[in-house]
Amino acid sequence: MILASLLVAWNIVTFSLYAIDKRRAIKGKWRISEKTLLVSTALCGGIGAVIAAHIYHHKTRKLYFQIIWWFSVIIEAIIIYLLFKN
């Protein structure tokens, strides 16, 4: 249950990073680096990243972001399956 809670918390963090970056992009302010966004996504933040990308229309045209998002979502799905299959 702890791992599931951490997974949810990390996806909230990742979602927040994308939302903050989009807000800063609109205002022309200092941005969160793409590397930070990609790493947070790759570390099991794919679900939060995909949701944020679709809500805020952020980074949706960049293929490498999409690849990392969906790869991470697949990994998270496997983790969730393994956590709750018992």
From TrEMBL:
Q: Which GO terms of the molecular function aspect are on file?
A: nucleic acid binding
Is-annotated flag, keyword Membrane? yes
Which superkingdom heads the taxonomic lineage of this protein's source?
Answer: Bacteria
Kindly list the residue ranges recorded as spanning the membrane.
35-56, 63-84
Keyword terms, alphabetized? Membrane, Transmembrane, Transmembrane helix
Give the InterPro entries listed for this entry: Cold_shock_CspA (IPR012156), DUF1294 (IPR010718)
Keyword Signal assigned: no
* Pfam families in UniProt: DUF1294
Q: What is this protein called?
A: Membrane protein
Question: What is the protein's species of origin?
Answer: Pseudolactococcus plantarum
